[in-house]
């Protein structure tokens, strides 16, 4: 199945000059969604256990939760500042449109947990790098960062210094 046909370009969103890769058509098609999760799961082929899957707010939650179920792992949401109800660990980061802060519950990762990080798009790498740092500060081990889309021209992979896998490169 050609999943690329379910990814549409939105020009000048969220600001002028940016071409946004919109995955909502993919999410809205049951067969495409299943195939996408199958392929994302197959990207992690080390054969080693995954204890937790992190989904990065907001689109990373959707497929991150599905991947956690597939790996028989726990699911951990990483959210923007002020959205989580319990004690948190925070990390400021830069992204292509400015700066922000991410948070994770301080008890979400146990020392030695093997963690797969998932998001929809890898752009400059600032968001995923901040999540990797949060995982490691809590004692976890990042086994891989998975993405549906990687924007190669922004060199985000170089920021991570972790195994990275993507379904599509643009």
TrEMBL record:
<feature type="domain" description="Phosphoribosyltransferase">
    <location>
        <begin position="33"/>
        <end position="149"/>
    </location>
</feature>
<comment type="subunit">
    <text>Homodimer.</text>
</comment>
<dbReference type="InterPro" id="IPR050054">
    <property type="entry name" value="UPRTase/APRTase"/>
</dbReference>
<keyword id="KW-0660">Purine salvage</keyword>
<comment type="pathway">
    <text>Purine metabolism; AMP biosynthesis via salvage pathway; AMP from adenine: step 1/1.</text>
</comment>
<protein>
    <recommendedName>
        <fullName>Adenine phosphoribosyltransferase</fullName>
        <ecNumber>2.4.2.7</ecNumber>
    </recommendedName>
</protein>
<dbReference type="GO" id="GO:0005737">
    <property type="term" value="C:cytoplasm"/>
</dbReference>
<keyword id="KW-0808">Transferase</keyword>
<dbReference type="GO" id="GO:0006166">
    <property type="term" value="P:purine ribonucleoside salvage"/>
</dbReference>
<dbReference type="GO" id="GO:0006168">
    <property type="term" value="P:adenine salvage"/>
</dbReference>
<dbReference type="InterPro" id="IPR005764">
    <property type="entry name" value="Ade_phspho_trans"/>
</dbReference>
<keyword id="KW-0328">Glycosyltransferase</keyword>
<dbReference type="GO" id="GO:0003999">
    <property type="term" value="F:adenine phosphoribosyltransferase activity"/>
</dbReference>
<keyword id="KW-0963">Cytoplasm</keyword>
<dbReference type="GO" id="GO:0002055">
    <property type="term" value="F:adenine binding"/>
</dbReference>
<dbReference type="GO" id="GO:0016208">
    <property type="term" value="F:AMP binding"/>
</dbReference>
<comment type="function">
    <text>Catalyzes a salvage reaction resulting in the formation of AMP, that is energically less costly than de novo synthesis.</text>
</comment>
<dbReference type="Pfam" id="PF00156">
    <property type="entry name" value="Pribosyltran"/>
</dbReference>
<dbReference type="InterPro" id="IPR000836">
    <property type="entry name" value="PRTase_dom"/>
</dbReference>
<dbReference type="InterPro" id="IPR029057">
    <property type="entry name" value="PRTase-like"/>
</dbReference>
<comment type="similarity">
    <text>Belongs to the purine/pyrimidine phosphoribosyltransferase family.</text>
</comment>
<dbReference type="GO" id="GO:0044209">
    <property type="term" value="P:AMP salvage"/>
</dbReference>
């Amino acid at each position: 199945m050609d999943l690329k046909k379910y990814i549409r370009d939105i020009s000048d969103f969220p600001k002028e000059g940016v071409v946004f890769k919109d995955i909502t058509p993919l999410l809205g098609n049951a067969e495409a969604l299943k195939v996408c999760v199958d392929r994302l799961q197959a990207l992690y082929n080390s054969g080693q256990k995954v204890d937790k899957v992190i989904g990065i707010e907001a689109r990373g939650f959707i497929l991150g939760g599905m991947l956690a179920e597939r790996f028989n792992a726990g699911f951990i949401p990483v959210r923007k500042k002020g959205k989580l109800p319990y004690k948190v660990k925070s990390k400021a980061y830069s992204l292509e449109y400015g700066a922000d802060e991410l948070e994770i519950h301080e008890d979400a990762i146990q020392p030695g947990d093997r963690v797969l990080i998932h998001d929809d798009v890898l752009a400059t790498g600032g968001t995923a790098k901040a999540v990797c740092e949060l995982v490691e500060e809590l004692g976890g081990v990042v086994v891989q960062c998975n993405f549906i889309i990687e924007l190669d021209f922004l060199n985000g992979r170089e920021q991570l210094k972790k195994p990275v896998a993507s379904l599509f490169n643009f």
